[in-house]
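ok posting inputs for the calcium ion job
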Amino acid sequence: MKNAKRSMGLVLIILTLSIFTVAPVSAKRQREDPVEGLGVSLRGVKVSDLDGDGFEDDVKIYGTVKVKVSEEGRYSVKLVLMTKYIGKDPNNPITSGKKYDAKTRMTIRIYCDDDSWTTKKFTIKLYNLEGWYKGLAYASCGDETAKSNVIVFDPPGGSVGPVNN
Ligand SMILES: [Ca+2]
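and the output
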């Protein structure tokens, strides 16, 4: 009899524990990710002397992110710009290796007030580049990820100028 009471007590304790431990987990699971769509594009490159060292070897890359959400609020889009040096002659580019040389990271805060797409422009500055480069951006927000178009550009200016693909 005493044993039965004791094990009943144990069952109650276990039940109480499981209510406390399970409830917060399931509450978290019910909350769905409000981010429904994400896009990123690189729209252009401007070559100039941004750091004032006398050489037009710096670039400003212009891009746009777009987010679609189900809940009004402020969201953070994590952006990684990958750049790769492709050589000094665009007609004879260095193509060895698919890996990108450099990553530039930034976070873009975007306010979405309805459930349609919200877009925001961004710029990324890169300094002291010589030769031709290609660039590509990855974005992530909530559960969504997106990949941009590839751009090709030549910081020293010259006869051809920046090219958008
Ligand atoms: Ca410069």
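notes: The domain at 35-153 is CATH 2.60.40.10 (Immunoglobulin-like). The chain is about 20% helix and 45% strand.
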